[in-house]
Amino acid sequence: MSEFRGKTDSDSDEDDAGKSDTSMLTISRHDFGDESDEPSFSISIIENMKDDYGLFVWPCSVILAEYVWQQRNRFSGAGVVELGAGTSLPGLVAAKLGSDVTLTDDSNRLEVLENMKRVCELNKLKSKVMGLTWGVWDAPIFDLCPKIILGADVFYDASAFDDLFATVKCLLENSPGSVFITTYHNRSGHHLIEFLMVKWRLKCVKLLDGFSFLPPDKASGLSGNIQLAEIVLSCEQAEETSSSIVR
Asked: How far is residue 232 CA from its own chain's centroid?
């Protein structure tokens, strides 16, 4: 025998909250291609405008994704890990270009990880989705050997910088010759980033103004002082890593 329960004030509040959450969802489309009428491909992203960080496409993601497209020969067939992927636009572009991509975000942010899976399905891409908390040495991180590590706007909380650099260094050591490509706002923490690179024995081999390579139609909708950096192990650290592998 089934029980019928009338709708209470609490139920109405829950329904209204659900409708509110749903109304904040949107799907944005991001085109990539050379100057022609038809893009080479598009990536659709599910965004939640109610979320402050993980479920919104920030300018750094747009710029990094465009860089991935413009550097597409480097990404074909490469192993790629995106850190703090959120809506995962750069990683999904890499996957579309033929990279073997693992999308990661904080293991505790289950709603973000679930959204990443939905976005992969929406774009018919078979990228792996994995919880990875910076500075936490779970077993799966040691199985990751990416040629390229991506990170868009991962330098926003200075208290997490050390954990981020520790994670990046671990991944770089797992795969000799690999590179970390990141876009970030040139905020007051820029000198801290430089200091921590030295501390973790990393070096920047390329530094670009994020708008210097962005097509005008994309640049017009963005703002901020955004830089793109390619970071690798320092020469000394790379030699030590290679020697330990040989032994």
From this structure: 18
| C-alpha distances out from residue 173 to 68, 139, 143, 212, 238, Å | 22, 15, 12, 31, 8
Q: For the chain, first and last CA: distance in Å?
A: 71
Quick one: DSSP state of residue 156? S
Domain count for the chain, please give it.
1
pLDDT by residue (tens digit) across 123-169?
A: 999 999 999 999 999 888 999 999 999 999 999 899 999 999 999 99
> Can you tell me the distance from the alpha carbon of 145 to that of 80, in angstroms, rounded to the nearest whole number?
8
Q: Is residue 11 part of a domain?
A: no
Question: Residue 22 burial (CB < 10 Å; 0-12/13-18/19+)?
Answer: exposed
The band of 63, judged by pLDDT with boundaries at 50, 70 and 90, is: very high
Q: Is the pLDDT of residue 188 over 80?
A: no
Instruction: CATH number of the domain at 74, please.
Output: 3.40.50.150
The sign of the CA dihedral 121, 126, 131, 134 is negative
The whole-model pTM stands at 0.86
Pairing of strands 202-209, 179-185: unpaired
Reading the block at residue 131, the tokens are 């919880």
